[in-house]
TrEMBL record, chains A, B, C, D, E, F, G, H, I, J:
Main enzyme class: isomerase
Pathway given in the UniProt record: Aromatic compound metabolism; beta-ketoadipate pathway; 5-oxo-4,5-dihydro-2-furylacetate from catechol: step 3/3
Name of the protein in its database record: Muconolactone Delta-isomerase
Muconolactone isomerase domain sequence ranges: 1-89
Reaction(s) this enzyme catalyzes, per UniProt: (S)-muconolactone = (4,5-dihydro-5-oxofuran-2-yl)-acetate
EC number(s) on file: 5.3.3.4
Top-level taxon of origin: Bacteria
UniProt entry tagged with the keyword Isomerase: yes
A Pfam family assignment: MIase
InterPro entries the UniProt entry points to: Dimeric_a/b-barrel (IPR011008), MLI_dom (IPR026029), Muconolactone_d_Isoase (IPR003464)
């Protein structure tokens, strides 16, 4: 099943530059692990914003939540989740 | 360049069932023409809503607008447009 | 997989009382068919509003969309969809 | 009487990891106490978000408030409360 | 149990003056019937708006919904419902 | 003249438990002083939220502001103010 | 007592040009009657919008509501009402 | 003085295609008259939406309102107005 | 030219009482300087909120911005700006 | 391609005056570098707010994001991005 997710990151203003750098590095590592697994299919930067739009292809809502909540910045993001399906007008055989 | 678009359709309440059917049929035809051209890469149904999320890969903002505004229901949709780029953490070589 | 859905109904102001009664009757019939199938587990009225909160237990996002979009008033509702999973603090064995 | 509640948790950015862990542990303990009492019927995780949707079956608004406000993170959550009733189209005998 | 309700009335623009007058008259009759029963305790006009704030003291959420949904303009109102309880700082013995 | 007020309290996350307890105690004292004066007629807890809905019967907007702004947590609340009047459909002789 | 009011006018799309002209003329007549009485102190056009911001100096909330609700377009406006008082930092002796 | 304006057009659903075409043609004529006068400096289409962002350089708020309100579709647009000035960090000598 | 401005003040929670008192004192001084100049015509307190509505009569958008941005609490306020003009239905000769 | 961007700056309340001054100085330097390159065509101050509206003329969404995200205050701004194209009613030959 496929989810489209929009994540807006809000770096806490009281964090030191070291703490920020540490979180950002671990964020990259975690998201790349999931991308390489094939579950996190697309990761796009929203042009001009500290946000991304991602597309995940997962086995279940549980697996989807496991991936998103493993991100170190998860508690500091505003997240919009959309569950999508094949559209009746789509010409593409598969959803992805 | 890639745009992610969310379109919420609001069928006018005063239209006859024939007028609705005509618009819906032409909507399908138009969207499929653009999908076959390779410009409209993904067309997903938002589960449980009369909405879609689409991904378009176009030459320019002009071409993007030409495609979306050619949809017969264009004047009756609420549309959210997001311009996206390659994310620094993306492992995929290309954006699509 | 489980979805929680909130549906706000907005009866079109230009419809005759007959057309409204026809839609409302078919709405009831459709929702009861799905409830009896066991897919539409809970249908609650929001106290004081022309809205409902429902809980559906389905095989896939496709099946979920098939059920919701089969409702006659589907094009005239504002719908909020939430995909839910088992909570780590839940004591109940199963999600439902 | 039945309430559907959506709680969005926002962990304060200035708290130490110890303080966060302490609050999270007491949150779990409190919510499980109420679940075991039978008052807090469902506790679902919103997929992809630090939020839950819960269903409580209580004697009165007072009891409902007593339960929710006993959560240690209560002052740091954004909470949406919906009072629900049996729906006229519901086929299920009881509301829960 | 006590509910505070805010109702914003939106008279449909396509209705004739006769139809509007008929609805408004029946609205008055219905709300006064419930006020006289003692269930609809306060009915206030929001100064400068076509809205009211009301306070109802009812036996159950079912009774509350029965009262509000009996109003002829119910399908054409935007309604905000708040379930309230005795406040720990209240000096008044009873809630009303 | 009568105002209906909704106050959402947001306890600052950086305050010590002592500072919070001190503010909460003075908040109680202040609100009870005004309730006993007869100006602050109702103080209700919103079920499930750190909010209240209050009804004040005052001489003037000046007096109303004097009361609300005397609350120690006033700078940390989100406040919605509604000025209300007697409703033409009200059966009750007086507004309160 | 002084109210600041913002009124956004939404001309119903189904009205004939005659009906619109009639309403607009009566709207002017009504607002000018109240301006000449001294109760409606300022009537400003919001630059670039079909909206106005007005300042009224009235005896009571009842009188304020009587004035605003006498406008023929009252049911078709979105209205924001703000009750204001003398500011402690104001140098002007009187509020108006 | 310079205004940035965003106009979202909402074509009334009940209008005939002739009425729509007539309004659209007069809209074009009016906007071009003002553009040629040098007052309406930029008129941009928002990519993917039935909206425009415009920049006007006018003598006064009165002149600005005269221009925008002369558009035939003015009553059917949602308009956001922003008054702008020279920015202290701007390197450009003049504002336009 | 005339602007109507609504300013919501949000005192930073981490500031000491001395820092708050200092800012509040300088805020008063600055606003009174502009009021005495005749540019800041009205300064009203929003009843029940830490907000004001002000009316300024200035030479240009530049002068308007100079005044508002000179307030010490300017970076900590949420500000809504409305540019207004003489209304065609206004009976008053001048705008102020 | 042209983007219109609105940036609302929110200076973190916990920063020292030195840290703020440092960020503001580097913000100026960065924005002026891009303005001199010809990519950042307009930088306007929103009158009365700590916000700007900017117009950028760039080669690609990537270049646009590179410019905006190079601003030191980028993580502390709320940013609204609009991709614009030539309008069919525009009389100007080029978009800028």
């Amino acid at each position: 099943m496929v989810y489209v997710v929009e994540m807006d990151v809000k770096i806490p203003e009281t964090w030191s530059e070291e703490k920020i750098a540490d979180y950002v590095a671990r964020e990259k590592e975690t998201s790349q692990k999931w991308q390489k697994s094939g579950k996190w299919v697309y990761l796009w930067r929203v042009a001009g914003k500290y946000s991304n739009i991602s597309v995940l292809d997962v086995e279940s809502p549980e697996e989807f939540h496991q991936i998103i909540s493993s991100l170190p910045l998860f508690p500091y993001m505003t997240i919009k989740v959309t569950s999508v399906t094949k559209h009746p007008n789509a010409v593409r055989e598969n959803i992805l």
